[in-house]
Amino acid sequence: MRTALDCIPCFARQALEAARFVSDEPAVHERVLRDVMHRVAEMDLRKSPPVVAKHIHAELRELTGVADPYREIKDRFNRLALRMLGDLERQVAKAEDPLAMAVRLAIAGNVIDLGVDGTLSEDDIRRAIDNTLHEPFVGEIEALRDAIARAERIVVLLDNVGEIVFDRLLIEQLPLDRVTAAVRGRPILNDALLADAETAGITGLVPVIDNGSDVPGTLLSDCSDAFRQAFDDADLIIAKGQGNFETLSDHPANIWFLFKAKCPVIAGHVGLPVGTHICRPGIPSDALRRT
């Protein structure tokens, strides 16, 4: 999907919040914001929002000299999610449908997105998890269950730190010997890296690869050859988060998107209210053969 004009204020907010993470100097904040907005004015808005964000955050890292502005807050959210893990595992274990519960909790964890809300608090996350079963949900759990049962090679595209602890609940419901998980290749926003997958305990469950990219989504042309091979070989791809939806929603493959519609642009694109929890298939892999 392409970048909407309504995305531009979000880019400015991201840049300012990131600058404040790494510096207390108002002059630095102003310089970062001015330079980033100049870059935004020249961006090709036909590209998806994560592609635009990649260039903005590269500029921000160059201006501040900080390779990972979100590292401290990422560690904090990982620790918070791990403190919640035991209770959530028990919740899944006693559920009438453990897969459905794991899907709902994994989507609830998608609230941990500093690209959408840099002021997110621990109370916000706990509230999102506590309200999981009361949030509007649009999904096809039985169709996803069938896709999982038929797939020989499953790739799970992980999204944000903290959130990946909730994704672990979902991975534990999959046939582990057929699953590979994937994270970002370099720091961008609060997206998960290999170290975060290790912290979340995912590397102890399934192989984890990085995609070689710092796009906060999955832009295949920017990913490594090894990742693209794993992506192409997969029978089923489970893609978590808005960024993966924004970059892959037009890609014909057997992709299932699990995310929360957190902004009016995404909500309008899928035709659902803001806040909806979504579990939906993408374009079928045989779509090209039908055109």
Question: Can you walk me through this structure?
Answer:
This protein is an alpha/beta fold and 291 residues long. The protein has helices at residues 8-22, 26-41, 49-64, 71-93, 98-108, 122-130, 141-150, 163-171, 194-199, 225-233, 242-248, 264-270; strands spanning 137-139, 154-157, 179-183, 208-210, 236-240, 255-260, 277-281. It has a seven-stranded mixed beta sheet with strand order 1-7-6-5-2-3-4, with helices on both faces.
Could you give a short description of this structure?
This protein is of the alpha/beta class. The chain has helices at 8-22, 26-41, 49-64, 71-93, 98-108, 122-130, 141-150, 163-171, 194-199, 225-233, 242-248, 264-270; strands at 137-139, 154-157, 179-183, 208-210, 236-240, 255-260, 277-281. The protein has a seven-stranded mixed beta sheet, sandwiched between helices.
What is the fold named in CATH at topology level of the largest domain?
Answer: Rossmann fold
Quickly count the helices. Answer: 12
Overall form:
globular
C-alpha end-to-end distance: 20 Å
Spans of at least 5 consecutive residues whose pLDDT stays below 50 are 287-291
CATH architecture of the largest domain: 3-Layer(aba) Sandwich
